[in-house]
Amino acid sequence: MNNTETRRAVDIAARAGTLLLRSGSDITRVEDTIKHIMRSFGVKKYDIFTITNGIFLSASSDEAPDGSCDYTRICEVPKNSSDLYKVDLVNTLSRDIEAGKCVIVRRDTREKIEVSLADVASKVPEILETMQKEMLERARAHREEHTYEAHDYDEFKKV
After folding, report:
1. From 9, 16, 65, 133, which residue has the greatest number of CB atoms within 10 Å?
2. CB burial of residue 31 (10 Å; 0-12, 13-18, 19+)
């Protein structure tokens, strides 16, 4: 794992932890989620310290000399109200990352599509293209069903 990948893993894990802490999650769950994400990205050397209003996260890549740290992230987290829906979403996301998959939900049909993380970059444009075509077809069908022809004023009033 190189420095860029380590930094990316720390940023994602810190963002997930911040969302959890801000949404009222307990410290143990925050740290556990961060650990899952860090391990899933292949980061072997990391330290986490979480308090009720902050997260301290440091990690080292495989390239770092022993005892040194490549990247440290400190996040101040002001407390908002509890939002268990967000806590559930972030927990699900961290489990999906650990399993090497993600779930894409189509906004037009609410269909859930499970995709491996390795295939996301190729699958998303494919799904978006399909959505665009299907939405255009539905819009055209709706237009045809609701378009009427009137040849005079009396026909117009009936429509």
Report:
1. 9
2. middle
Say how far apart CA 116 and CA 97 lie, in whole Å: 9
Per-residue pLDDT tens digits for 102-115:
899 998 999 999 99
Residue-wise pLDDT for 11-60, tens only, equals: 999 999 999 999 888 999 999 999 999 999 999 899 999 998 999 999 98
Query: Pick from 73, 69, 71, 60: which is nearest to 14 by CA?
Result: 73
Whole-structure pTM value: 0.66
Residues 6+ apart with CB under 8 A from 19: 86, 90
